[in-house]
Amino acid sequence: MFSAIRVASRSAASARTFRKAIPVARAPWSTGFVRTLVTKRYTQDHEAVIFDDSTGVGVVSITDYAQSSLGDVVFVELPTVGTEVAQGDQIGAVESVKAASDIYAPISGSVEEVNGELNGQPGLLNKSPEGDGWLCKIKLTDPSEIESLLTEEDYKKHCES
């Protein structure tokens, strides 16, 4: 019986030694804790914004519901980089074979970038309205405005009514 305990204690001791001998690789991101919150919200006018709190930038797009209502998009008017916009300001327009529709800023801030791909391929709004068909990126002046927009559940209810 004592020999069994000695064997068990030897194997446990050798396992501890073995574990210490193996270097542990650390991932570069594990040295510090960074929390990034990405929030997606909607307007009643069918714009969407994906806000990243670590950069303070919101990516503005139209929703899938909007693009399906418009039909085949043939032209997109985008804001100019550097333009200061207030929540609710008109920042562009979308024209389709069915209709034309204005685009409104879901948030206040400065336009940092526009999606130049839409000039040559306005159909990206139909293929991927909230992905490759994004409209512009706005650096928010008041991140609390995000909370005033609709959540995904609230937006779905709005579309159903």
UniProtKB/TrEMBL annotation:
It comes from Somion occarium. The H protein shuttles the methylamine group of glycine from the P protein to the T protein. Keywords: Lipoyl, Mitochondrion, Transit peptide. Coiled coil: none annotated. The glycine cleavage system is composed of four proteins: P, T, L and H. Its main location: mitochondrion. Binds 1 lipoyl cofactor covalently. Residues 57-139 form the Lipoyl-binding domain. It is found in: Mitochondrion. Pfam families: GCV_H. Its cofactor is (R)-lipoate. It comes from the Eukaryota. PROSITE patterns: BIOTINYL_LIPOYL, LIPOYL. This is Glycine cleavage system H protein. Belongs to the GcvH family.
